[in-house]
Structure formats: structure tokens, C-alpha cells
TrEMBL record:
This is Transposase. InterPro entries: VasX_N. CDD domains: MIX_I. It comes from Pseudomonas savastanoi (Pseudomonas syringae pv. savastanoi). Residues 156-263 form the Toxin VasX N-terminal region domain.
Length: 481
């Protein structure tokens, strides 16, 4: 016989309280049973990650409908990290949509460039997302002229042009403007100058607004963008040259760099955290002694990190603090990067002081062992100042180039705070001009040394010994002396 159950017969067990860990900032989480710290499970989302933070609206990622007229608005999420902050753009995925990059212009319609056709649903990731855009600053390696082992430290590219080829076509052309506060990048509307057979001849004018960085695609659908190539030119490339680069993959491969732009917290930590930075590279390369086996062992990890910069995007924080480029003055120096990375402005004064101290020591017959960082132009100017003025020569203030310059703020300060990236490009023309200038300086210094030697009371006797006694042969015959 069934019996009724009263409320007093039923005992309720208290539910145990669970302590729920707060999700990582910027990442929503879904749980089943126990909460997880991993990424949330979202249905049918399209996510694009833009590396860095505090981006302006001068460059934007647009999601366009199949007809190209409708624009879908995204939700934005900022992810703060020590080394790898980023901004996520999140849309509800819609079949047949396309991604474009929109660039603000000074007048008229903005520039729109295709990024990705046929978007796919994107599962959220804890670190690097499947779709990634990396804002970059173009850098070049600036080595000294004293040793072939100097691989150079990264400095901002000088005034000129940056060319971006994407999917075997010229995608972006930007003009670099240099100022005391840093570089800005100005887009040229490539489509305006493109015609069926190539490009219109003549000058192509920049109409894009001044940008602090250049947005480039790095990952699409969890695959590296393999067709992105970049190059620097000090002058605007001609229409014929651009046509050749588009049509000839071999020429493009030879002229351009293809760095791996993808980034993640783990990748940047493995490649760069705790590794030698730009300042360490500058100090090691400019003072390297190839004859010292200990120095060769110490420089090996620095060279390894420098090679990583050659082939991968790197955090701007890795570059040494630096001033704006001054190519004309840089070519007068054996170590131009030491000048650029001296924010105090005392490098010229110190170089001239060291040159005069070197001449004073050698004048007393004291051998100077370490001359690796001696600036030969400063030495030539100091030597010239010590010589009598020739009758037909005009007086020259040899020390005017070596006066102290104004102290400056690091031109990369804002980029460091925003955690954007850098890429290394080649600037072969600058390197050739720099080395040619150094050869000319050596020739000038030899001539000044000859003038200085004439002032010695025993110069004539020393010259006679040098010409008649020292040579092993004279006119093809064994020297009897």
C-alpha cells in the first residue's frame, strides 16, 4: 500500500558553491560542467585580429556584401598582453561576403583594396586568430663600414617609397615622409594609374592621409599569406619597372623581401623575449674584433637574433631608441647607427674628441690598440685643423660638423606603446653610397697624412729609405739594398 510522503521526510542536500575563475580579459568563455579558461564557443562568427592597439580609423577592415555595396559593422574587442596586444573585429558570418582594407584620403573617396574573398566561419583562438592583419613600420639594417661582420641594427627607412605586392599584383604604393617626430606613410591610389596594359607613365601622386603604420595581411583561414612581397626604393619606380615586377616572378623575388608577418604571444616570446635587442646589436657589431675568439663566441647569439629580424616581423620594442634619419650626415660616419641611436646629441662631440686624442697619442709615439670606433672623417678634420693653411686654400672650420646636436625624443616612442611591428627591407643604394663616401674619406686622409709627414724634420730621409731600401724589388730586379 502506497504511503504519502510529508515534507518532513524529504531532506534537501545543500548545493556546493563553486569558485569561478574570472576569464582572461577580452575573452568570453562558455562552460560545460567546470568553467574553462580557453576561448569561447561561438557560432558562425568571422574574426579578424589586428595586431597592436590604439589604431586610428585611417585604416579600416570592411566586410562587404556580395554586391560590394552593403557594409557590415563589426564589434571590437581589445586584448591587452605584455608583448602581443591586439584588437579583434568580430562579425556574424554571412556567406558570400568579402574583406577589404579602406584607407582614408585627403580628398575624394577613400582607397579600397581587396583583402579576402569568400570568407569562412572563424573559431575563436586563445592567442593568434585564424585571420590576422599586422601593422608594420619599414626598417632597414644600418651597418658600419669597419668590418664585414657588422650586420647592422634596425633603423627606420629613410625617405622614399614602399611597394607591396599581393597575389602577384602591386597592391599598395606608399611614400615615406621623414620628420623630427618620426615617419609617416602616404598611399598612392594604384588603381587610378592602372590601365589594361600596365600603368600610366609619369608621376603618381600620393593622396592618402598620413599613416603611422602600414596594415598588411599575415594570415587567412589559419594559413600564412605566401604571396605578400615588399621592397623599398629611394625614388618612385617607373611604370615600366612596375609592369616588369608584376609579370616577372623571378625579378620580383630578387627585388623584394617576403617576411613572415604572423605574430602571436608565444611566437614573439620564443623569438625575441630575453634575446639581444637593437642596442645590444649596435654595441656588439660596432665594437667587434674578428681576431678575438671570445668575441666571436659572444656575438653568435646576437647574429642569430639579427637573422630572425631578416625573415620575420618583430616587435618595434626590439629596435634601439633612435632619432630621425639624416642620410647626408650619416654617410660621413663609419658608424652611422651610433649617431642615430644617440638621443643626447653628444655623438659628434665625442667622436671629434676621440679623434684629437688619437692624433695626440700617436704624435707622442704611443700606439693606440683599439681604433674600431674611431671615426675617420673626424680624424681627417682634426688632422686638417692641425696643419698650416696652404697659400691658395680658403680657411675651413673643420670642427663645425662635430658640434653637439639637440637632444631628441625617440621617434619610435608611440609605436612602442602601441605594440606594432617592424619589417626589415633592403636599401642597397644607400649602402653603396655610404661605402663610396668612406673610400673617398680614406683617400683624403692619406693625402692629409702625407702633408703632415712633410712637417717632420726627418721626412726626406724616411722617404728615401721607403723608396730605395724597403722594396724587395725595383723595376723587376731584386733590390740589392
Amino acid at each position: 500500500m502506497a504511503t504519502a510522503t510529508t515534507s518532513s521526510d524529504v531532506r534537501f542536500k545543500p548545493v556546493a558553491r563553486r569558485r569561478v575563475a574570472a576569464p582572461e580579459q577580452g575573452v568570453l568563455t562558455m562552460t560545460s560542467g567546470r568553467l574553462s579558461a580557453g576561448p569561447s564557443c561561438e557560432m558562425d562568427k568571422l574574426i579578424v585580429q589586428i595586431v597592436g592597439k590604439k589604431h586610428s580609423d585611417q585604416q579600416q577592415v570592411l566586410l562587404l556584401g556580395s554586391d560590394g555595396t552593403r557594409i557590415y559593422s563589426p564589434k571590437s574587442e581589445v586584448l591587452e598582453r605584455e608583448l602581443f596586444s591586439s584588437t579583434l573585429k568580430v562579425w556574424d558570418h554571412i556567406e558570400g561576403t568579402h574583406l577589404h582594407l579602406q584607407i582614408a584620403t585627403l580628398e575624394g573617396e577613400p582607397i579600397r583594396l581587396p583583402l579576402l574573398s569568400g570568407t569562412k566561419v572563424t573559431p575563436r583562438q586563445a592567442d593568434a586568430q585564424f585571420n590576422q592583419i599586422v601593422p608594420v613600420l619599414p626598417f632597414v639594417a644600418l651597418p658600419g663600414s669597419k668590418t664585414v661582420d657588422d650586420m647592422g641594427t634596425p633603423v627606420l627607412a629613410r625617405a622614399g617609397y614602399v611597394y607591396v605586392f599581393y597575389q602577384e599584383k602591386l597592391w599598395r604604393e606608399l611614400e615615406i615622409h621623414v620628420s623630427e617626430t618620426g615617419n609617416t606613410y602616404h598611399d598612392i591610389d594604384v588603381a587610378r594609374y592602372r590601365q589594361q596594359s600596365g600603368f600610366l607613365a609619369g608621376e603618381r601622386k600620393a593622396t592618402g592621409q598620413a599613416l603611422e603604420d602600414i596594415w598588411l595581411p599575415a594570415l587567412w583561414n589559419n594559413r600564412h599569406v605566401q604571396t605578400l612581397q615588399l621592397c623599398f626604393s629611394e625614388i618612385q619606380l617607373s611604370a615600366a619597372r612596375l609592369e616588369r615586377l608584376e609579370k616577372d616572378a623571378a625579378s620580383r623575388d630578387q627585388r623584394c623581401n617576403s617576411p613572415d608577418l604572423s605574430g602571436s604571444k608565444m611566437r614573439f616570446k620564443d623569438l625575441y623575449k630575453g634575446k639581444p635587442d637593437g642596442k645590444a646589436m649596435l654595441d656588439a657589431f660596432s665594437g667587434f674584433d674578428a681576431k678575438n675568439p671570445v668575441a666571436q663566441a659572444l656575438i653568435a647569439p646576437i647574429k642569430a637574433t639579427r637573422l630572425n629580424l631578416q625573415y620575420n616581423a618583430f616587435p618595434v620594442s626590439l629596435a634601439a631608441p633612435q632619432r630621425a634619419r639624416q642620410p647626408g650626415y650619416e654617410r660621413l660616419l663609419d658608424h652611422p647607427a651610433r649617431y642615430l641611436c644617440d638621443l643626447s646629441g653628444q655623438f659628434p662631440v665625442e667622436s671629434f674628441r676621440e679623434a684629437k686624442a688619437f692624433l695626440a697619442q700617436t704624435g707622442r709615439g704611443v700606439a693606440v690598440q683599439d681604433v674600431r670606433r674611431l671615426e675617420l672623417t673626424a680624424m681627417a678634420d682634426a688632422l686638417l685643423a692641425s696643419l698650416p693653411i696652404e697659400a691658395d686654400a680658403e680657411p675651413v672650420d673643420a670642427g663645425v660638423l662635430w658640434e653637439a646636436q639637440a637632444g631628441v625624443v625617440d621617434v619610435l616612442e608611440n609605436a612602442r606603446q602601441r605594440q606594432v611591428c617592424g619589417v626589415l627591407l633592403d636599401d642597397a643604394c644607400y649602402r653603396l653610397r655610404h661605402l663610396r663616401q668612406r673610400v673617398d674619406t680614406c683617400q683624403q686622409l692619406f693625402a692629409l697624412c702625407a702633408r703632415h709627414a712633410v712637417l717632420h724634420p726627418h721626412h726626406a730621409s724616411a722617404l728615401l729609405v721607403q723608396q730605395l731600401v724597403v722594396p724587395r724589388s725595383i723595376r723587376g730586379q731584386e733590390n740589392p739594398l
